Amino acid sequence: MSSIGRSRTTGKRSDRQRLVQRLDRIFSKYIRLRDMIPETTLFRCISCGQVKPISQADCGHYINRSHMMTRFSEVNCNAQCKQCNRFDEGNMSGYRYGLIKKYGERQVQYLESLKTEYRKYEPFELEALCDHYNKKIAEELKKRGLKISCLTK
Hints:
This protein is mainly α. The protein has one domain. It contains six helices and four strands. Strands 1-2 form a two-stranded antiparallel sheet. The chain has a two-stranded antiparallel ribbon with strand order 3-4. Helix 1 (15-34) runs parallel beside helix 6 (123-144) and helix 4 (92-103) packs across helix 5. The chain is globular. The model has no long low-confidence stretch (mean pLDDT 93).
Protein backbone atom coordinates (compact mmCIF):
# COMPACT_ATOMS: atom_id res chain seq x y z
CA MET A 1 0.00 0.00 0.00
CA SER A 2 1.19 3.52 -0.75
CA SER A 3 2.76 5.60 1.98
CA ILE A 4 0.94 8.74 0.79
CA GLY A 5 -1.25 10.08 3.58
CA ARG A 6 0.49 7.99 6.22
CA SER A 7 2.56 9.14 9.16
CA ARG A 8 6.27 8.48 8.69
CA THR A 9 6.63 7.22 12.25
CA THR A 10 3.52 5.11 12.79
CA GLY A 11 2.42 4.16 9.28
CA LYS A 12 -1.17 5.07 10.23
CA ARG A 13 -3.40 7.08 7.95
CA SER A 14 -3.52 10.78 8.74
CA ASP A 15 -6.70 12.52 9.85
CA ARG A 16 -6.68 14.37 6.55
CA GLN A 17 -6.49 11.12 4.56
CA ARG A 18 -9.34 9.61 6.58
CA LEU A 19 -11.42 12.72 5.85
CA VAL A 20 -10.63 12.45 2.12
CA GLN A 21 -11.81 8.83 2.17
CA ARG A 22 -14.95 9.77 4.09
CA LEU A 23 -15.70 12.58 1.64
CA ASP A 24 -15.09 10.19 -1.29
CA ARG A 25 -17.83 7.88 0.03
CA ILE A 26 -20.30 10.71 0.72
CA PHE A 27 -19.60 12.54 -2.56
CA SER A 28 -19.99 9.30 -4.53
CA LYS A 29 -23.44 8.72 -3.04
CA TYR A 30 -24.48 12.26 -3.92
CA ILE A 31 -23.28 12.01 -7.53
CA ARG A 32 -25.07 8.71 -8.09
CA LEU A 33 -28.30 10.08 -6.57
CA ARG A 34 -28.02 13.32 -8.56
CA ASP A 35 -27.64 11.44 -11.83
CA MET A 36 -30.61 9.10 -11.41
CA ILE A 37 -33.27 9.43 -14.06
CA PRO A 38 -36.24 11.25 -12.42
CA GLU A 39 -38.92 9.03 -10.88
CA THR A 40 -36.80 5.88 -11.32
CA THR A 41 -33.85 4.16 -9.70
CA LEU A 42 -32.07 4.02 -13.06
CA PHE A 43 -29.21 6.07 -14.49
CA ARG A 44 -27.66 6.66 -17.90
CA CYS A 45 -23.91 5.99 -18.00
CA ILE A 46 -22.00 9.16 -18.93
CA SER A 47 -19.59 7.11 -21.07
CA CYS A 48 -21.58 4.45 -22.93
CA GLY A 49 -25.10 5.87 -22.62
CA GLN A 50 -26.64 2.61 -21.40
CA VAL A 51 -29.48 2.82 -18.90
CA LYS A 52 -28.91 0.59 -15.87
CA PRO A 53 -30.08 0.21 -12.26
CA ILE A 54 -28.42 2.72 -9.93
CA SER A 55 -26.89 -0.18 -7.98
CA GLN A 56 -24.64 -0.70 -11.03
CA ALA A 57 -23.31 2.87 -10.92
CA ASP A 58 -19.93 4.17 -9.82
CA CYS A 59 -18.99 7.78 -9.31
CA GLY A 60 -16.75 8.04 -12.35
CA HIS A 61 -14.07 10.71 -12.61
CA TYR A 62 -13.16 12.15 -16.01
CA ILE A 63 -9.91 13.53 -14.60
CA ASN A 64 -8.33 10.94 -12.30
CA ARG A 65 -8.95 11.14 -8.54
CA SER A 66 -5.25 11.74 -7.93
CA HIS A 67 -5.83 15.34 -9.08
CA MET A 68 -7.26 16.95 -5.95
CA MET A 69 -8.24 20.10 -7.84
CA THR A 70 -10.99 18.17 -9.65
CA ARG A 71 -11.52 15.18 -7.35
CA PHE A 72 -14.70 16.66 -5.84
CA SER A 73 -15.84 18.64 -8.89
CA GLU A 74 -19.50 18.01 -9.71
CA VAL A 75 -18.69 18.47 -13.41
CA ASN A 76 -15.74 16.05 -13.32
CA CYS A 77 -17.75 13.36 -11.52
CA ASN A 78 -20.75 11.62 -13.02
CA ALA A 79 -22.64 8.35 -12.73
CA GLN A 80 -20.77 5.77 -14.78
CA CYS A 81 -21.50 2.08 -15.15
CA LYS A 82 -19.09 -0.26 -13.41
CA GLN A 83 -18.13 -1.81 -16.76
CA CYS A 84 -16.90 1.49 -18.21
CA ASN A 85 -15.32 2.74 -14.99
CA ARG A 86 -13.55 -0.41 -13.83
CA PHE A 87 -12.96 -2.53 -16.91
CA ASP A 88 -12.81 -0.14 -19.87
CA GLU A 89 -10.32 2.22 -18.20
CA GLY A 90 -13.08 4.79 -17.75
CA ASN A 91 -14.09 4.77 -21.44
CA MET A 92 -12.54 8.23 -21.66
CA SER A 93 -13.57 9.02 -25.25
CA GLY A 94 -17.17 8.19 -24.39
CA TYR A 95 -16.86 10.09 -21.10
CA ARG A 96 -15.60 13.22 -22.87
CA TYR A 97 -18.44 13.02 -25.40
CA GLY A 98 -20.96 12.60 -22.56
CA LEU A 99 -19.51 15.59 -20.70
CA ILE A 100 -19.74 17.80 -23.79
CA LYS A 101 -23.37 16.76 -24.25
CA LYS A 102 -24.15 17.45 -20.60
CA TYR A 103 -22.08 20.60 -19.91
CA GLY A 104 -20.79 21.94 -23.24
CA GLU A 105 -17.34 22.07 -24.86
CA ARG A 106 -16.17 25.19 -22.97
CA GLN A 107 -16.89 23.67 -19.57
CA VAL A 108 -15.01 20.49 -20.54
CA GLN A 109 -12.02 22.49 -21.77
CA TYR A 110 -12.02 24.47 -18.52
CA LEU A 111 -12.19 21.23 -16.53
CA GLU A 112 -9.25 19.84 -18.52
CA SER A 113 -7.25 23.00 -17.79
CA LEU A 114 -7.62 22.41 -14.06
CA LYS A 115 -5.75 19.10 -14.27
CA THR A 116 -2.40 20.82 -13.79
CA GLU A 117 -3.53 22.98 -10.85
CA TYR A 118 -2.49 22.03 -7.32
CA ARG A 119 -5.03 21.81 -4.49
CA LYS A 120 -4.57 20.64 -0.94
CA TYR A 121 -7.65 20.57 1.26
CA GLU A 122 -7.33 21.44 4.92
CA PRO A 123 -9.17 19.17 7.36
CA PHE A 124 -11.77 21.84 8.16
CA GLU A 125 -12.57 22.17 4.43
CA LEU A 126 -13.02 18.41 4.09
CA GLU A 127 -15.33 18.37 7.14
CA ALA A 128 -17.38 21.22 5.67
CA LEU A 129 -17.66 19.40 2.33
CA CYS A 130 -18.78 16.22 4.13
CA ASP A 131 -21.53 18.21 5.87
CA HIS A 132 -22.50 19.96 2.62
CA TYR A 133 -22.85 16.73 0.62
CA ASN A 134 -24.64 14.90 3.43
CA LYS A 135 -27.25 17.67 3.29
CA LYS A 136 -27.47 17.39 -0.49
CA ILE A 137 -27.94 13.62 -0.19
CA ALA A 138 -30.78 14.14 2.30
CA GLU A 139 -32.40 16.66 -0.08
CA GLU A 140 -32.14 14.28 -3.06
CA LEU A 141 -33.58 11.37 -1.07
CA LYS A 142 -36.46 13.48 0.20
CA LYS A 143 -37.17 14.94 -3.25
CA ARG A 144 -37.24 11.45 -4.79
CA GLY A 145 -38.98 9.72 -1.88
CA LEU A 146 -36.17 7.18 -1.56
CA LYS A 147 -33.91 5.69 1.08
CA ILE A 148 -30.11 5.51 0.75
CA SER A 149 -30.37 1.74 0.36
CA CYS A 150 -31.61 2.34 -3.21
CA LEU A 151 -27.94 2.68 -4.20
CA THR A 152 -27.17 -0.92 -3.30
CA LYS A 153 -30.36 -2.84 -4.17
